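Office hours follow-up: a student asked to see two folded examples consecutively, so here they are.
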Amino acid sequence: MIPYGNNSFSLRLKILVLLLFTMTFTTMGCFNIGPHAMKNEWLKYNNVISNIEDQQNLLNLVKLRYNDSPKMLAVTNINSQLLLGSEDSGMSYSFSEGATPLGNRFSFFLFPKYEDKPTITYQPLQGEKFVKNILEQISLDVLMLLNNSGWSVERIFRLCIQDINGIRNAPGASGPTPDYAPEYKDFLTVAELMRTLQRQNFINLNYELIDVESTLVLSFAEEALELPETLKLIEMLRLTPNKTDYPLVINVMDHNPNHVSIRTRSVMGILYLLSQSVEVPQEDVRKGKLTTTKYADGRPFYWSGLFSNLFQIKSSSEKPSDAFVRIKYRGSWFYIDDTDVESKRTYSLFSQIFAIQAGKIKVERPTLTLPIGR
């Protein structure tokens, strides 16, 4: 608040103060606006890109369930220009006046304005390299990396492996929805036994030198060899008892009781697998808009058993209010419930696997540029 005496002095003082603050703002203000604007805009773009990627992944899962073609876009560049001021003024201001016992006073406020004018570049994820990478089987190195990152061995195996020593984990689900019921129950038992032993630090995946080669092995602790869970697991996998180390081999057809043979999925296979969890509207099923899986006797097969405590995509005619991610497609809302912790964990694991596989493609990463204009 600044006191003043008469009207002419008041006017002159207003002009003087406004000029002083305009000069101060012009010479110093920009240096304060830049970092502040960058902080705000960075977080906004980060959240928006993350949400869009989640929605794109969900949309592609739903499309695959409907036998529609998925498409993928990646944000490769963000050029966000911050323009200081509007077309007619670099700032706005206001004055207020009033009488006090000490005389007339006035106060003023300056409001700097800036506009955000972004240019966002998208790049389709396509081409021979990308297709090969998402169709390429997940390697043993990736399984080791995920295991060492703290992921549950049960979740890794249920998502990434479709066969272990002849025990099937719904291999037909790695492609378009099959019309026959898949085998998976024995595999779930194997994965659960491994998780039980992992919780007690009785089982692990690690590299060992075998015949001068670094080999990934499934290792048991000595004290776990007589546990009922270990004995049951060894029996189901048809392995030689009382051994601590079993080398992992990939895509070996002939059974060897001293090895664990696995067949892994590809990223595309995992996408197809997760798409089978989509809860579709009964009206779409009745109209034959998608494949219906059945047992040999004609009874309908329900995929919920395969995805129990792993993953679920729900559907609704109304927009869900509490969703981790949601998308509208073919007139219905599809979403992952925000309270479904298991589905969110599995989605996060898939996102990491996708990033590893797609990361083999040299794609220019998003760049956020924030020039201050005007």
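And the second, which I mentioned at the end of office hours:
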Amino acid sequence: MSNKPEKQTQTATSLPEHGPIDENGREILLQVKNVDITFGKGDSAVRAVKNASFDIYKGETFSLVGESGSGKTTIGRAVIRVNPCAAGEIDYKGVRISGKIPRSLDREVIRNIQMVFQDPAASLNERATVDYIISEGLYNFHLFENEADRVNKVETIIKEVGLLPEHLTRYPHEFSGGQRQRIGLARAMVMEPELVIADEPISALDVSIRAQVLNLMKDFQKERGLTYLFIAHDLSIVRFISDRIAVIYKGDIVEVAETTELFDFPLHPYTHSLISAIPIPDPVLEKNKVLYTYDPSIHDYSVDKPELVDIGHNHFVYGNKEEIERYKAIREKNEPIKTITILTPEEREEADRKRLAEGKEQIAVPSDADVIINRPTHDTGSFWYGVLAFLLPIIGLISSLIFRNHNYIRNYKVLKKGAIAGLLVRAAIIVFFLLMLLLAIL
């Protein structure tokens, strides 16, 4: 899992029964090797994922965590061959599945890698019955002997996800969000995949339903030996279902470690900030908690370029040589890092006073004397105020002063400008006529 370029894997026409075995005897099911994913071309190109590398072992739950827009879903869609890789490659069981591959291999990849989408409403065909939605993969890959076998498979899986066979004749809009997500899960599981990519499958669900869906996914994993790539933004959820976690920030994977290791030793500052943002159930403690905010400007990568490096304990961190040495020293102390700070009521009051004082300093010296903090609702600065002030400049000036006294600054400014413009035009006309009169006399 280093950033060094690796030799491209030979493309096969079919998948082997097992993937390669690492030095610890674990079977590597999926390998993402130095993957770049770019959208657009030329100057408008956006590099959504940068040099991403990680392995997923058979039977584990590997979570990819980061804020919205960090590239999590982009990587998941690249694995199912929706997003093409601009560089690097993705291997499944040691066989390259990114880029152009034989049709027979493509069908095996689709069959073995299924995806559960974030939005259970948008991912289901509203015009199709639940029976057809679940059966579509069976039809496409001919995974049943006869009609009776197909019906049996569909009814079995619909029961396993907690729904009833009579639900098969209904349409997606007749179900709740949690039920629709169960249908999406059934659609994936009926294919009997080896790897399931779960793209924030519970973020659109109520809290009470989330636990049910997660328990259902864990049951499937135990019964069928499934491997999950679980994409999420909430570390509080992935902590209890993941074997290993990768943290991604703006396309860069900044830390990868086993779950306990990551929460005890969040070495990268961004990981630290994500963990500190996990809500505390106690409202008093949550109110007095200090949030750690990640500032990317603390890194100086102008000369010494960063890499994703194994610092020991199967813990990978992204940084330059100086940072990596510092991370290693912290880890070798073997003292868990404190990620949450709770202030006492007195400390909280003092912090609030300081923040209020800083805020007052920022607004005490405005750049324009007309700037106000609380602008009235009807302070629109309408164009028509300016027109009226231009036609009636004296009344416009008086009105502008009245507006200013009541903090209607936008109205004041537009009236003032209109009145001044009106007076200047009138002055110019008077001067013009005086000049014409003078010329006529001479």
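Two things to take away from it. Residues 280 and 348 are 17 Å apart (CA to CA). Residues 28-264 form a domain with the Rossmann fold fold (CATH 3.40.50.300).
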